[in-house]
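About this split. The held-out portion is used to measure sequence recovery: a designer receives only the structure tokens and must propose an amino acid at every position. Recovery is the fraction of positions where the proposal matches the reference. Here is one held-out target exactly as it appears in the evaluation file.
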């Protein structure tokens, strides 16, 4: 097709509404405005199915349609001749379009009326430029976006550890893509939730905060393993309210005071969540947001998808390399004297929640690891540890190697840095770290 379908992606943003024309078996035409047109690939588009209207009736008996798109920059008009294939009512495509429609509906004040019933998938038979005399500034990847992506990938190549990968990725989003607010979340061992390991642009880091799969745009992107981009605020996809509601409805939830709140904008009007996958296995989610409407383009979506693929490779490489390091050669550092009043460290066995002087720190796998380090310190004065020995410690009952132990340690290190100046974790080499204790400890199991 000339132009190729991908060259028209600017027309799919909804700045100028698309129209679809269909006919019934008698040839009676019908023209209707569309809420959403979604680019699937070079041969296919998906149209939103919201009502059983004339368009829907026609397409079920006569599966041909004509779609008119308008370029919002050049004003060029395009006619796409389509053939209806099928309707999807679940899965990545449906969830992506559902989220985007929710944003459109919220922006237009039609939240109670707009509801996606399905994603109608069409084959594009041919494309006609209706106004050939118009100057067609077709959608192409800009050199600025490519240059930003190239810089990010080069910077990530220089990182010597996983913590550097996390921080460098978000710093590059700020400096090179001008994306001021971002988060990087990793998948928990149970495969049911994500936890925050790094953030940028917020008053609080939110490191250690969690969100369940399927909750908010982040959780839906993770569950469906698909990128989701919303250009207008959609209340039901705001992760902060979604995750709080999830905790309130959960019978097994701990009091909210023991949960770490997700960072976030009070009114996020543009959101982009990209799953981080390695060989189709979900590792986490890269997320950016903005208070501006329509802040992120399809071009930037492509760039962040490429960045996430590179992140997946970097995360997997660094995580595995730290756990393959031999245990031999640990330094023997004298334990420094401690001073001051004793810190009370309390553990809740149910979920391994840890409190330092009644101040919540961490839970789950990271909490279990921290308790083991403290016990070894109290029992035999140990301060030097390795990732590898933790992985092979049967008492910890850690998940298998597919779980990212290095990410857990980074999470623990950052929570300690934020919440307790008297207990620290220091990296001493690849796959090696040191526990630094500056006050006496008193360990309690609740």
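Reference sequence for scoring:
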């Amino acid at each position: 097709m000339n132009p190729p379908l991908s060259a028209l992606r600017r027309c799919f943003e909804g700045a100028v509404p698309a129209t679809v024309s269909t006919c019934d078996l008698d040839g009676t035409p019908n023209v209707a405005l569309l809420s959403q047109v979604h680019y699937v690939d070079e041969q296919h588009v998906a149209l939103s199915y919201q009502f059983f209207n004339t368009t829907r009736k026609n397409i079920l008996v006569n599966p041909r349609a004509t779609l008119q798109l308008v370029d919002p920059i050049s004003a060029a008009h395009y006619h796409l001749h389509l053939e209806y294939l099928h309707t999807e009512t679940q899965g990545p495509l449906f969830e992506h379009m559902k989220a985007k429609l929710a944003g459109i509906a919220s922006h237009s004040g039609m939240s109670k009326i707009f509801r996606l019933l399905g994603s109608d998938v069409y084959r594009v038979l041919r494309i006609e430029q209706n106004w050939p005399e118009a100057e067609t500034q077709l959608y192409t990847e800009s050199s600025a976006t490519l240059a930003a992506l190239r810089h990010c990938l080069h910077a990530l190549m220089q990182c010597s550890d996983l913590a550097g990968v996390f921080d460098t990725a978000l710093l590059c989003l700020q400096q090179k893509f001008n994306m001021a607010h971002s988060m990087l979340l990793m998948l928990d061992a149970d495969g049911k939730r994500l936890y925050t390991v790094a953030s940028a642009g917020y008053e609080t880091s939110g490191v250690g905060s969690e969100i369940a799969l399927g909750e908010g745009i982040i959780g839906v992107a993770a569950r469906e393993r698909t990128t989701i981009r919303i250009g207008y605020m959609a209340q039901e996809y705001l992760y902060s309210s979604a995750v709080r509601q999830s905790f309130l409805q959960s019978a097994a939830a701990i009091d909210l005071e023991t949960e770490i709140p997700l960072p976030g904008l009070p009114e996020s009007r543009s959101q982009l969540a990209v799953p981080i996958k390695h060989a189709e296995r979900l590792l986490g989610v890269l997320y950016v947001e903005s208070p501006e409407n329509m802040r992120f383009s399809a071009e930037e979506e492509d760039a962040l998808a490429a960045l996430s693929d590179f992140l997946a490779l970097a995360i997997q490489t660094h995580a595995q390399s730290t756990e393959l390091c031999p245990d031999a050669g640990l330094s023997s550092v004298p334990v420094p004297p401690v001073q001051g009043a004793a810190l009370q460290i309390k553990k809740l066995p149910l979920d391994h929640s840890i409190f330092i002087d009644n101040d919540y720190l961490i839970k789950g796998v990271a909490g279990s690891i921290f308790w083991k380090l403290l016990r070894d310190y109290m029992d035999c004065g140990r301060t030097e540890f390795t990732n590898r020995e933790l992985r092979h410690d049967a008492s910890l009952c850690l998940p298998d190697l597919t779980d990212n132990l290095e990410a857990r340690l980074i999470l623990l290190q950052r929570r300690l840095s934020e919440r307790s100046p008297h207990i620290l974790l220091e990296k001493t080499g690849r796959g090696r770290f040191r526990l630094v204790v500056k006050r006496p400890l008193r360990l309690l199991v609740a």
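Annotator remark: Confidence is low (pLDDT under 50) at residues 134-141, 240-245, 250-256.
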